[in-house]
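QA checklist item 7 of 12: single-chain prediction sanity check.
[x] sequence parsed
[x] length recorded as 221
[x] structure emitted
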Amino acid sequence: MAITVMVVDDQEMVRAGFTALLDAQPDLEVVGQAGDGAQAVELAAALKPDVILMDVRMPVLDGMAATKRILAGTRPGEPPRIVMLTTFDLDDYVYAALRAGASGFLLKHSTPDELAAAVRVVAAGDALLAPSVTRRLIEDLARSQPVVPITPAQLTPRETDVLRLVARGLSNRQIAAELVLAEQTVKTHVSNILTKLELRDRAQAVVYAYEAGVVVPGPRH
């Protein structure tokens, strides 16, 4: 079955463009569009899309507030995956949205292939965390907050190692190579981490790791 998508942006041209690009993919289907956050909350409840592309800055209700309302109004195990759309590399609203449960963010000038790939990635349960801009965003904001490094009592030493690598943007395959583990073992560790820390997905795991000081922001490259 096709992955269902909802596009939320206050600019009609942007909505139309994204819709055309996504509908051209055989495995993707745009089921709705909204021009502001309030409309997005209503449509999300009615349409229950798999993925929502959400603009950050909109009238009536911004993307961050809409994300919180949508995720708060869904049952456990049934929330849509929300990808924030922004024209800015660094945006406080995006960070707040990640903390609220968004699965990542995408720059509006991304290529059609990147847009389609982003939808598939989050629909599969992963997060858009590999791009350097995402790591820079989280590290910059983590630097501004005092953190006390801790080792979460709930996690085993190996799970803590995996969490550190997830926070650095590594995929399961890369983590498996780094720790000399089977990829399926890494997937199990990631699942256990999310369950034990009561986190929605890898995006929240990254935010948690930086805020808790499990990973200390490194120097700017």
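[x] summary fact logged: The chain has a mean pLDDT of 82.
[ ] second reviewer sign-off
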